[in-house]
Amino acid sequence: MIRAYTSNNKEELLILLRLNTPQYFDVSEEADFIEYLDHRLEDYFVVEEDGQIIGSGGINYFPESKLARISWDVVHPDFQGKGVGKRLMLHRIEHIRKNPAIDFIVVRTTQRVYPFYEKMGFKLEKTEKDFWAKGFDLYQMRKILKR
């Protein structure tokens, strides 16, 4: 089940992030995630199975640039490779398509997971070494929405 995030989910999401650190996130990024959840959140969704949150991911909007940005994708390690991230991404793409002001979706990720976004139709725009933290390079990718 995919549903909207509520602030009651925050601690469970921090646990999810920690389970993915240091493989997919640097320890320094937890403070950024907290800042995001507390102050930068626009649309954020959680994936729940049997009452447990097993994934989450958000969307931020930049209508002046006609784009939406995928933000803070996190999937429980036990559920990676089982379609959770794909379902969550397809849910957000459909959610974004409902907004006529948005023509593009951007994701800023790392070299560790960019192949997932390639499979979802995103194209690499640029890279920047050690952008997020040492050993965590920026891979900025874009998807054009076909209406």
What percent of the residues sit in helical stretches (DSSP H or I)? 25-40%
- Gross geometry: globular
Query: Judging by the overall fold, what is the CATH architecture?
Result: 3-Layer(aba) Sandwich
How do the helices and strands follow one another from N- to C-terminus? EHHEEEHEHEE
Could you name the CATH topology? Answer: Aminopeptidase
How far is the N terminus from the C terminus?
26 Å
Oligomer: single chain
Average pLDDT taken over every residue: 96
Counted up, domains total 1
Keywords: Acyltransferase, Transferase
Organism: Pontibacter toksunensis
EC number: 2.3.-.-
Protein name: GNAT family N-acetyltransferase
Can you walk me through this structure?
Its EC number is 2.3.-.-. GO terms for molecular function: acyltransferase activity. It is built from four helices and seven strands, in the order βααβββαβαββ. The mean pLDDT is 96. The chain is globular and about 35 Å long. It is of the alpha+beta class. Helix 1 runs antiparallel to helix 2. It has a single domain (2-144), classed as Aminopeptidase (3-Layer(aba) Sandwich), CATH 3.40.630. The chain has a seven-stranded mixed sheet, with helices on both faces. A hairpin with a 2-residue loop joins strand 6 and strand 7 (136-144).
Task: Provide a short characterization of the protein structure.
By secondary structure, this protein is of the alpha+beta class. The chain has one domain (2-144): Gcn5-related N-acetyltransferase (GNAT) (Aminopeptidase). It has helices spanning 10-19, 29-40, 84-97, 114-119; strands at residues 2-4, 43-49, 52-62, 67-75, 104-109, 123-133, 136-144.
